[in-house]
Amino acid sequence: MLVECSSRALLNTIIRRSSPPQQHGRPPRTPFAYDVASQLPTTQLPTTQLPTTQLPTTHILARAVVRAAGCVLLVRAEGAPHTFLPGGHREPGEGLAECLCRELREEIGAVATVDTYLGAVEHRWRRDDTPQYEINHCFATRLPALSPPTAPVSEEEYLSFEWVEIEQLEAAKLQPAPLRMLLARSAARPTPWWGSTLT
Fold first, then answer.
1. 85-130 per-position pLDDT tens digit
2. Are 164 and 83 within 8 A, CB to CB?
3. How many angstroms separate the CA atoms of 109 and 138, rounded?
4. pLDDT bracket for residue 187 (50, 70, 90)
5. 194: part of which helix (H) or strand (E)?
6. Residue from 171, 66, 54, 59 nearest 124 by CA
7. Beta-bridge partners for 52
8. How many Cα atoms sit within 13 Å of 2 on the Cβ side?
9. Phi and psi at residue 142, in whole multiples of 5°?
10. What stretch of H or E contains 170?
11. So what's the architecture of 59-196 in CATH?
């Protein structure tokens, strides 16, 4: 049977059937608002008061430990108070040994032979208030064309190289600092090591 009705009557019927029932004389709350409000813990802070943690920039580096005549080859960036091991950042698609060979070729124009993996040191610091995290993978590396006391000439203007005796790594302010002890120890006992400045 077909029942004809006006558009206003049909609209009123739809609204009446879809509306939630009244509770204790109070106007109904929409289901969405009710569900959200009922699940919020009473101790939750407004979004503007929630603490934020800035994630550090992560660096993966390959470092060369080049030894000769009781010395280690170190690098110093222009104006920097500290030194570091030759090498640098791994690029996408590179293995660590491949990265190290490329870095040494770019820095001093020499062909390197990457030998034993010695260990790693993680380090944390801040750059312009931005947290930084790096992990330095260190390899025993041979550069037959180089030997102390003559330091290699850098291919990059802002870098300079120097040979430093093992006993002088502290004075040279080698960074990360755990390398000073680890390099001295590994000269006599070449077992893999791990160091960190995070603790």
1. 999 999 999 999 999 999 999 999 999 999 999 999 999 988 888 9
2. yes
3. 20
4. low
5. strand 193-196
6. 59
7. none
8. 1
9. -110, 135
10. none
11. Alpha-Beta Complex (3.90)
Whole-angstrom distance, CA of residue 157 vs CA of residue 176? 23
Question: What confidence score (pLDDT) does residue 189 get?
Answer: 64
The C-alpha atoms of residue 59 and residue 77 are separated, in whole angstroms, by 18
Does residue 132 surpass a pLDDT of 90? yes
Cβ atoms within 10 Å of 134's Cβ, excluding its own: 18
Distance CA 50, CA 46 (A): 7
Residue with the two structure tokens 């893999």: 192
Number of alpha carbons in the 13 Å side-chain half-sphere of residue 145: 10
**Joined tokens for residue 119:** 């260990």
Q: Are 192 and 117 in contact (CB under 8 A)?
A: yes
Both tokens of 69, joined, read 């005549």
Burial (CB count <10 Å: 0-12, 13-18, 19+), residue 136: buried
Residue 27 has a pLDDT of 46
Residue 173 has pLDDT above 90, yes or no: yes
Radius of gyration of the chain (CA): 33
Give the whole-angstrom CA distance, residue 119 versus residue 87. 15
pLDDT in tens, 66-81: 999 999 999 999 999 9
Strand 130-142 and strand 57-65: the pairing is: parallel
DSSP-based three-state secondary structure for 146: coil
